[in-house]
Specification:
Strand 6 (221-226), helix 8 (233-241) and strand 7 form a beta-alpha-beta unit. Helix content is 35%, strand content 18%. The protein contains 13 helices and 14 strands. Bound molecules: guanosine-5'-triphosphate (GTP) and magnesium ion.
């Protein structure tokens, strides 16, 4: 299972545009709230340095691509309907669609950097609304959605726990299974949420506290202020100071389309692009690309690709590891060079990698070998970013 990132936010902020640019897939985009009803799913890529340059050969990825030593590792994105305050009580489209985000490893919350939309996504005029205020209500709606999942049958579970014994961790863990939360996170969240030892004192506030801890720990997120092309440098700096990444999803979409159409050469995340044939561009296209270029010069690119990479590598603290079957040639059994690039959490061990490749490989794990140093690694050896690893398992 690849990493899954949920794109969330109030209606009309630019979620689907951001999604569509990153995944190069068509998603409906409209300048009115609730354009998206059914979730959109797609694949985007994060960049990392590929070890194939050390071999002096070109890798053969099973998934993703590699361009001149830059490996593109696939990450799944899901774009959902807009969220409004009170969604957990059924306002707007309610929050049923949040169930699509159960397995998300992290969130990108999109806000409208122009501050032109009220909380329901209706246009109210530029600067009339502080977009950073969205961050709080969207987080709260997500927390209340999770609290609802935890509350389901909870009282009965707690009574049983008191009469028959057992562990609170286990009950909570089972309730939220499928949410991509691990047991350690549940235990830590229970500790942090100051759960009363007398369960009769357990009320909704306790459940919400617990849900809040679980979300913060297991599904961290970033705030992406899109439509950055519609604000000035001063407004942009202010949003950045308050912790948002300022991007232009629309300009990234223009670049991807122009690149696909053979008009320009552009690699996502680059700070500039190159026009391939000036003569092929009509005046509207020239004008659009001039505006894009101007924005890129001021912002070191559109910052769209960077936003996802910031979430993956800095916030979710992922590293990339390359499992191989031959530690000398870095190939699989079919001779493919560095076929897999796997995203894992920092701190993951050799046995974690074995299980990630195949549960069977984990069960039969004997040792691992570092493909660079040829050193033997035990099951608890902590992996590093860029490691090339062979797993040796019992036959
Ligand atoms: N100028 C500019 N316009 C943008 C940008 N991103 C989105 N828009 C416009 O904002 C409007 C809403 O975009 P969508 O991507 O449909 O927004 P959404 O958040 O998916 O909306 P819902 O699905 O209704 O919740 C459209 O008119 C887009 O063209 C951007 O980066 N710059
Ligand atoms: Mg949408």
């Amino acid at each position: 299972m690849s990493l899954l990132i949920g794109i969330i936010g109030k209606p009309n902020v630019g979620k689907s545009t951001f999604f569509s640019a990153l995944t190069e897939s068509a998603a409906e985009i409209g300048d009115y709230p609730f354009t998206t009803i059914e979730s959109n799913r797609g694949v985007t890529y994060v960049r990392t340095k590929c070890p194939d340059v050390e071999l002096g050969k070109t890798c053969q990825p099973n998934f993703g691509k590699c361009i001149n030593g830059t490996r593109l590792v696939p990450v799944e994105l899901i774009d959902v309907a807009g969220l409004v305050p009170g969604a957990h009580e059924g306002k707007g489209l309610g929050n049923k669609f949040l169930d699509d985000l159960r397995r998300a490893d992290g969130f990108i919350q999109v806000i409208d950097s122009t501050g032109s939309l009220d909380q329901s996504g209706n246009a109210v005029g530029k600067g009339k609304f502080d977009p950073m205020e969205d961050a709080e209500f969207v987080h709260n709606e997500i927390v209340l959605w999770l609290a609802n999942i935890i509350s389901d049958g909870l009282i009965r579970n707690l009574r049983k726990l008191e009469s028959e014994g057992g562990k609170l961790e286990t009950i909570i863990y089972e309730k939220i299974s499928g949410l991509g939360v691990d047991q350690r996170e549940v235990s830590a969240a229970i500790k942090n949420a100051a759960i009363p030892s007398n369960f009769k004192k357990w009320d909704d506030k306790v459940t919400i506290r617990l849900a809040d801890e679980i979300i913060r720990m297991s599904k961290p997120g970033i705030i992406v202020a899109t439509k950055g092309d519609k604000i000035d440098q001063e407004e942009s700096s202010k949003l950045k100071e308050r912790g948002a990444q300022v991007v232009s999803g629309d300009f990234e979409l223009v670049l991807r389309k122009a690149s696909k159409g053979g008009l320009i050469e552009y690699f996502p995340g680059d700070t500039s692009f190159r026009v391939l044939d000036e003569g092929k561009l009509n005046s509207a296209q020239k004008d659009a690309l001039r505006k894009v270029s101007d924005f890129m010069n001021h912002n070191a690119g559109t910052q769209t690709q960077e936003a996802v990479e910031h979430l993956v590598f800095t916030v979710l603290k992922m590293i990339v590891v390359y499992p191989v079957e031959d530690e000398n040639h870095w190939i699989d059994k079919n001779g493919n060079i560095l076929p897999d690039a796997i995203l894992m959490r920092q701190g993951s061990t050799a046995i974690d990698l074995a299980y990630k490749v195949h549960s069977d490989l984990g069960d039969r794990f004997i040792r691992a070998v570092n493909g660079r140093t040829k050193r033997i690694l035990g099951r608890d050896h902590v992996l590093e970013d860029g490691d090339v690893i062979k797993i040796v398992a019992a036959k």
